[in-house]
Protein: TGF-beta family profile domain-containing protein
Amino acid sequence: MQENLQLSLDIAVKGTKSLEIDGGDVSGNGGPLHPFLAVDTEEKQQVNRQKRQVVDECPVTQRTCCLHETEVNFHNINWNFVVYPESLTFSVCAGSCVSPGYYRKPEYRLKAFTRMNSPKHACCVPTTMDSVLFIIIDEFGEIETITIPNMKPRSCHCIV
Structure:
C-alpha cells in the first residue's frame, strides 16, 4: 500500500489569529502520511539550540497590516526528507486595519469609512501569493518534486 504525502503549515504571529495552510494531496498515492511544520517566531532563550532568523518586514513601531517573515532551516528541525530548499522564508500577513488609508482599492476605503463604528472588522490579507517548490525523499526513498501553489504571501493589504 502506497501512502499519500501531504504538507501542512501552521503560522502564528503573536497577537493575531493562527493561519493554517493545507497543501492538499501532493503525491497522488493515497494514504495517511501527513508531515507537519509549526513555525514559532517568538524569541526563546534555550541552551544548545540554534535560533531561527526572524525578519519583520514591518518597522518595529508599525502595527498596521504588513508582511512578517521567518527563516526556517529544515535540517535544524529534523525535516531531513526535504532535499531542496535547505531553508525557506515563510511569510504571513498580520496587523491592524484601523485606518481607511491602508486599503489598497478605493471601494475598500469607502466600505471602511461607512463601517468604522460597525462590529465588522477589516482583515489583513495577502495581495499576491507565490508557489513553493520542494524536492523531497518519499517514504520509499525515491526523490519527488512537489510544487505547492499559493503557499507564500508576497504582499499584503486590508479588505473589509
Remarks:
- The first strand starts at residue 6 and ends at 12.
